[in-house]
Write a structure and sequence with these properties.
By secondary structure, the chain is of the alpha/beta class. 29% of the residues lie in helices and 27% in strands. Helix 1 runs parallel beside helix 3. The radius of gyration is 18 Å and the shape is globular. It starts with a strand and ends in an 8-residue tail after the last helix.
Length: 278
């Protein structure tokens, strides 16, 4: 299965972002991509407060644009996230949408862990002020290479919470996890690759991580380096600096082989940890 990660520098201009995404989807199609993935905030990247006026429901024009890409390029499409309207007047959801090649919506995941941190240089992020967290983990599956891999859905800051990925792997048997992101330049330089590799090794699964890149506005920069890691923790593809795509032909069967030869997940299922003595 040929997977294409699209890396871009999204801004507040929705139309321009959608045009860029379509060009990257077309390039992915030319490389034979069966699955095209976009990063977090692909159609709009402003401040979290800026998302309120552009937020839409699932049947709005933003999701429709990506559904059209799926149909036009005969490929699965992951809309990494978009600002979805929520029951709160002053908060949106940060929502990932999995779209089949026929344009139908197969799965919807709303980001659970929100980015409320201070980073190097004094920049503060308070995603929860304007984004409502999701409250459920989501999986989907599809036919590929004679198998039906289970896919777990996550977004960006979720990557720092290993218990979420362990639930996907152990409780749901996920063989692939999506991690569309807008990882900041400051945190990405030190943590992006170590975290992706750790989640891949711990859960013996493919990690598909399209990331935003470059300067978006003000002091908001993203790290890029969109990457694919295999179930052994090897990085099999990584985007260079700048907008573009990176593709890889991923072997779903590798998951079964790794889990058979080193059955860590089976051991995790039956582990009965001793009580602490302290």
């Amino acid at each position: 299965m040929i997977v294409s990660l699209c890396q871009l520098c999204s801004t507040r201009d929705v139309d321009d972002n959608l045009d860029t995404c379509r060009r990257l989807a077309e390039r992915s199609h030319e490389r034979g991509a069966d699955w095209i993935l976009f990063p977090e905030n692909a159609p709009f990247l402003g401040s979290d407060a800026d998302k309120l006026p552009v937020a839409e429901p699932l049947d709005g024009s933003i999701v429709d644009a990506y559904r059209s890409m799926a149909r036009d390029f005969d490929a699965r499409v992951t809309l990494g996230s978009f600002p979805e309207t929520s029951p709160d007047d002053d908060r949106t959801f940060n929502t990932q949408v999995q779209i089949a090649a026929d344009g139908s919506i197969e799965a919807v995941y709303r980001k659970i862990f929100l980015f409320d941190v201070s980073v190097e240089g004094g920049r503060e992020y308070r995603e929860s002020a304007h984004v409502r967290p999701g409250d459920e983990i989501v999986t989907t599956s599809f036919e590929a290479d004679g198998s039906s891999p289970t896919i777990g859905l996550t977004i960006c800051y979720d990557l720092r919470f290993p218990s979420l990925y362990r639930r996907y792997a152990v409780d749901h048997g996920a063989e692939i996890v999506t991690v569309p992101s807008a990882f900041t330049l400051q945190t990405g330089r030190d943590h992006w690759h170590p975290l992706l590799r750790a989640r891949a090794i711990e859960n013996q699964c493919w990690m598909l991580a399209p990331n935003q890149w470059g300067h978006h506005h003000g002091d908001r920069w993203s790290y890029g380096h969109s990457s694919i890691y295999d179930p052994w923790g090897q990085r099999v593809a990584c985007a260079s600096d700048g907008p573009g795509i990176v593709t890889a032909d991923i072997d779903i069967g590798a998951v079964e082989r790794v889990r058979r030869d080193m059955p860590c997940l089976e051991h995790a299922r039956r582990a009965d940890l001793p009580e602490g003595s302290g």
